[in-house]
Structure formats: C-alpha cells, structure tokens
Amino acid sequence: MKLFQDYKKRFNLITFIVLGFVIITPIYFLHAQSAEEINQKISQRNLDIDYLEKEIAQYQNQLDDIGKQKNSLNSSLKELDINSKKLNANIKVTERKIENKNSEIKDLGLQINEKVNTIDNNKNAIALEIKQTNEFENNTILESILSKNKISNIWKDIDTMSTVQNQIREKIIEIKNIKTKLENTKNITEKARSELISLKSDLADQKKIVDQNTKDKKKLLAQTKNNEASYQKLLKDKLAKKEAFENELRNYESQLKFILDPSKLPNGGVLSWPLDKIYMTQLFGKTEAGKRLYANGTHNGVDFRASVGTPVKAMANGTVMGTGDTDLTCSSASFGRFVFIKYDNGLSSTYGHLSLIKVYQGQKVSRGEIVGYSGNTGYSTGPHLHLSLYASNAVKMESRASKTCNGRTYTMPISPVNAYLDPMYYLPPYKQ
Questions:
Q1: Which residues are bridge partners to 34 per DSSP?
Q2: Chain centroid to CA 72: how far?
Q3: Helices marked H in 225-273 — which ranges?
Q4: Is residue 60 within 8 Å of residue 19, measured between CB atoms?
Q5: Rounded Cα distance, 131 and 136, in Å
Q6: Pairing status of strand 286-288 against strand 291-293
Q7: Model confidence pLDDT, tens digit, residues 168-183
C-alpha cells in the first residue's frame, strides 16, 4: 500500500513540474507547417546566402582595386556606387539569416509541442494505472478468498499489479528524461531568439549606413558639380585644413608633461584585432634606431583597409570614455566619427573615420563586441579604420577652441606626444 502512495506523490510532483513548465513555455508554432518544410526553406536560404557572400567578395575585390588607383572624382563616385551594392547585398544576407532564425524558432516550437504531448500522454497512462492499483488495493486478498476466488486468480492479480508497478516506474523515468530534453530545447530557443534580436539590430545598422552612403554621394556631387578640377581643389583644401589642425593639436600635446612608466603597461600581444580581416595600409610613427616612435609630423596610429560598413570591435574589455564627430565642428580635418575606449589593462584606443557609432559614453564593452562600423568620415582619402593607442593614465577627452576651425570648439581624445604607443606591439603578430 505504501509503495503505491509513494507513486502517487511522485506522480503529483511530476505533474506540477510539467504543468509549470508548459505554462511558462511559449507556443511558438501555431500553424500546420511540418519540420521537413521548415528545413527545406532553411536549406534554400543558405544557398542564397552562399551566392550573396560570393557577390560581396567580388564587390570587395573591386573596392580593393579602386583603392590602388589615383584618387579622382570618377574613382570616388565608383567607390561609393560599389559600396552601395555591397551594403545592399549585406542587407539581403542579414534578411535571409533573420528568416532562417525565425524558421529555426518555429522548428523548435514543434519540438516543444511534441515533447509536451508525450509528457501528457505518459501522465494520463500513469493516472490510469494508479486508478487500477487503487481498485486492487480496495479489493483485498481476504475479500477475494471470502468471495471464493481461486488462489491461482489471486496470484495472477498480484502478478498483474507487479507489472503495473514496473510500467509506472518506467513512465516516470521517461517523463523525467523528456522533461530534461524539453528544458534543453527551451534554452536553445532562447538563444535563437537572442541571436534574432542581434540580427535585427545589424539590419537596422546596415540600412542606416546605406542611407549615409547615398547622402555622401549627393554631397560629393554638390561640392564638385561633377567636375574633376573642382574635386582636386576640394582634396587640396581638405589636406591643408587637416595639416593645419594637426599642427595646432600636436603643438598643444607637445607641451603636456607626462613621464611614461613602462611598468604600468601590459606586455605585447594583449589586444585582439579590431577587424575580422586585417590588411594594414599605414604604420605608426617613424623609424628611429630600429624602434617605432611618434613625433610631430608623423602618423599617430595605424590604418587598416576597411570598406564602409565593416564591423569594428573592442580589442579588450573596457569602458567607453567618449564618442563624437569632429566633422560637426571642423569638417574633414581629423577623426570624423570616433569611439574612445579605456581598456582594463592600462591601454586606451581611439577608432577614427567611422560611418556609425554603436556605443555610448560610460558603456562597458567586452573583447570582440561591435562598437561601430568603419567609414570615410573626417579627413580620409578613402574608407579605412584609423587606430590610435595610448597609455591610459595620460589620455583624456578634452574640449578646445581651434583657430583652424574658426574658433569653434572640438572635443576629442588628447594625449601627450610621448603617451602615444605603437598598436602593432600590442596586437597579434601580423604578416602582410
């Protein structure tokens, strides 16, 4: 008798757990689409994605070729057109991935429903077997003897009850196993939903960058009136403004006092690449006695080839100390759109010439997290990513009025000259 009471308690507990899980589990799949149909559509979209990615690679090869050509109005316009095609192809890829993720969630919903139904069927079977057990318990062996049942029938009933006990035990074990699988499926579903949210965010970013690319083309045509001579004059004016601004900034930074303590800096190789694909186009500083040093008139960072819309990632864990757009106060003279990050390892960096900023001041970021997208803002003769690196205890966001910018105030990272560091020492080994 006690044995069957234990079964009842276990059955009631399992029923409570299962029902609780079913209540909090959303039903994602409400129409009669089969798992096979879902997987067929996913496979077809994957073929589309493969085709589009090959198309994107072709556009990138064209952009690389343009980057090697002499800077002209025709090459700039062509670059903007190819960038637009590449960005739109990226949008299509993201849209296919979103459709696939939705289909994956529906397929997981089918699996959840199937497991819930199996649990319900087992619950009903256990309830029926417990009912049969109660009926047998109510009809005791003594009552069976008094009712003149044969002893053989009594033993047969006892054997039957033993079989029922085993069936109950097996179904309870099966319910526990299915419940574990149900929980795993729910976790996978939640992960898929998180990935779906990320893809939708990527899609929104890509559409913003396409719009900006279109505006850049219209602006360039308006500035040059589609005339090569006007374009070359525009480049010349931008270069003069950039050099004047940099001289003004470096003169100020050269006056800042800072003693670099190497013991407060990490070892080499502690940073990860800011881009998935690395091709360096300009090194840091100048070479003196076999070392790369920064001085006035030299490059204060490294440049990487990166077409418009390429994701730019944090190189380590850290905090965003500032973001901005120098074009708003001094067009085409400096970083353009930038992100300034202080890492937890004693280093800080600025990413320049971005097309879109994804983070905000004070935000904590993790290594590999997307903080923006590469672009062609600020002083830039073509899309690329500029990376400056500093000793953290020397650099800070600062606002200053600029004579070059007609007295307007710019805000950007400012550092003593000797606090600029060669990023390549702290990045992974690089081979061109």
A1: none
A2: 36
A3: 228-255
A4: no
A5: 9
A6: antiparallel
A7: 777 788 778 888 888 8
In angstroms, how far is CA 271 from the centroid of its own chain?
18
The C-alpha atoms of residue 167 and residue 117 are separated, in whole angstroms, by 19
The pTM assigned to this predicted structure is 0.80
CA distance 312 to 372: 5
Residue type, 22: V
Say if residues 313 and 341 touch (Cβ distance below 8 Å).
Answer: no
Assign a CATH topology to domain 227-426: Glucose Permease (Domain IIA) (2.70.70)
Rounded Cα distance between 38 and 31, Å, is: 12
pLDDT in tens, 261-294: 888 899 999 999 999 999 998 888 764 544 455 5
Give every CB contact of residue 230 below 8 A, 6+ residues apart in sequence. 73, 223, 224
Read off the DSSP letter of residue 419: G
Residue whose C-alpha is closest to residue 325's, from 367, 372, 285: 372
Tell me how far apart the alpha carbons of residues 424 and 421 are, in angstroms, rounded to a whole number: 9
The structure tokens listed for 207 are 């559409």
Per domain, the residue ranges of the chain are: 2-213, 227-426
List own/partner pairs for 399-403 with CB under 8 A and 24 or more apart. 400/252, 402/245, 402/248, 402/329, 402/330, 403/248
The helix (H) or strand (E) run that includes residue 391 is: strand 384-391
